[in-house]
Amino acid sequence: MxxxxxxxxxxxxxxxxxxTQAVAATVRVGLGGLTLGDLATGTGMSKSGxxxxxxxxxxxxxxxxxxxxxxxxxxxxxxxxxxxxxxARIRDLADRWLACGVDRAPGGCVIxxxxxxxxxxxxxxRDRLRxxxxxxxxxxxxxxxxxxxxxxxxPDVDPEQFxxxxxxxxxxxxxxxxxxxxxxxPARAHRAVDALLAAARTPTHPTSETTR
Length: 212
Fold this sequence. Notes:
Largest sheet: none
Shape: elongated
Helix content: over 70%
Structural class: mainly alpha
Distance between the termini: 31 Å
């Protein structure tokens, strides 16, 4: 996250600590409700000190999105990419994504919540969030393409449609789990993922249910 290969500087460590606090606060108040004044109170820093790191509220919001996306990538996406190509990788991604929601991990929650908060607010912050969502959709599509290449998924499966459907399952899960407090939300989401894979699976490829 610090963009360097060597040890983080004191300034970078301070900035990362501020962003950790900011991401957690954004889960509660949203990007629009995040202020440098409140963050100064929460971190014990002066507003002038925060301005030195971010310069403006917009720059802070952009940094929060990047920090949240990095957290999500580090806990969900990159570990899933180490799973075997094909259905196992899709399942690992889905399982980690659902665990992120169950654990209320700040990074994933910020990315989901910001989608409804910023969808009608044009500007650089919305543009950055849009690109983060599009990149995740492209990653899912590439993972699905790998499953087709491995012969585990049918060659006529549309990777973009599968990514759309999986994204829809996850958004429905966050809504049902967070807002509706449905204790069955994780199980429902797992069944929905199972249905997507069953519909896409090559008839001769055995289910991987027993390996989950």
